[in-house]
Amino acid sequence: MKDQFNREISYLRISVTDRCNFRCKYCMGEEGIKLLDHKDILTFEEIYEIVQIMTDLGVKKVRITGGEPFVRKNIMNLIEKIASIKALEDIGITTNGSLIYDKLERLKEIGVNRINFSLDTLKEDKFKKITKSCDFDKTIRSLEKALDLGFKVKINTVLIKGFNEDEIDSFINLTKDRDIEVRFIELMPIGQAKDFDKENFMGNQDILKAYSYKDLGYKGVARNYQIDGYKGKIGLISPLSNKFCKDCNKIRLTSDGKLKACLHSADEINIKGLSKEEKKEQIIRAIYNKPQKHQLENSTSASLRNMNSIGG
Ligand code: SAM
Ligand code: SF4
Questions:
Q1: Which residue, 198, 209, 230, 259, could crosslink 269 as a Cys pair with Cβ 3.0–4.6 Å?
Q2: Distance 91 CA to ligand 1 centre (A)
Q3: What's the average pLDDT block by block, 10 residues per block, for the chain (312 residues)?
Q4: Shortest-distance ligand to the CA of residue 238
Q5: Is residue 98 lining ligand 2, measured as CB closer than 6 Å?
Q6: Beta strand pairing status for 222-227 and 213-219?
Q7: 213 - beta bridge partners?
Q8: What's domain 11-153+247-309's architecture?
Q9: Where in the chain are the domains?
Q10: What's the whole-model pTM score?
């Protein structure tokens, strides 16, 4: 289905939980965060129904995200059901990688084809500092296994001033012999961690200065590059300095059943608890009224949520 600005909305991102076993400083922050009540979370049946309606309306691609999707009990049951929807051409997962290791074979079998791992450092001590988790080894093992199993793997690296600029070349090096995409994401000032995000912002415009590379152009939100002679790709995601709204094809579903047609807008439409027909009406309304562009450059996201409850 097209929105009023003629953009075809074909990509649904589902945050299946706002909970997470990590506490990344730029997302949930260290101090703890108010989490949703279990009764306010969409059931698997409701999520499945919403995906069916969306695919009828032209959605072809789904990404499961969170919080951390694998902290939700029995999440594999939901992923299997979604994967059985014939109209879906592409199913991806965004994960911190710590809980996915023993699920990878099954995910491959049922047709999940993409996995994005969030990884901001390649050093265990720094990993602990930024995530407040000791699961560095588990994350790395899962990432390597996903590559071995033939998933399309991306690494999402959030650039954090004074924290990981000294590792940029090490991340770029990962693309030398591996068919992997490393995406450098600029911090977005959103939710409870927005002060941290503003103070530690670092642009990604100079990252490739020392390299000779091919510009592969935009693919979704990332502008892609390939260093000459390297197997993998580098993606630069610059929501602040480079708006990609005119090509945005996404709609988001939060874990408590709100449709967000724009990540950085405060506008949300509730569809939890509605009948199938009512859900469909509201989905059509949300898609049609998707905002033309975000206003993030006015310093802060207008979204009232933390990133863990939207899913990135
Ligand atoms: N827990 C999973 C993970 O970390 O991959 C999925 C949810 S997480 C909210 C999705 C993505 O959002 C991650 O890649 C994370 O780095 C990114 N993210 C969270 N807060 C952000 C912020 N303030 N600015 C930019 N990216 C952010
Ligand atoms: Fe959890 Fe992902 Fe947010 Fe980190 S970025 S706190 S792993 S939801």
A1: 259
A2: 18
A3: 93 96 90 84 97 98 97 98 97 98 98 98 98 97 98 97 96 97 92 82 92 92 95 90 77 95 86 97 95 66 69 70
A4: 1
A5: no
A6: antiparallel
A7: 227
A8: Alpha-Beta Barrel (3.20)
A9: 11-153+247-309
A10: 0.94
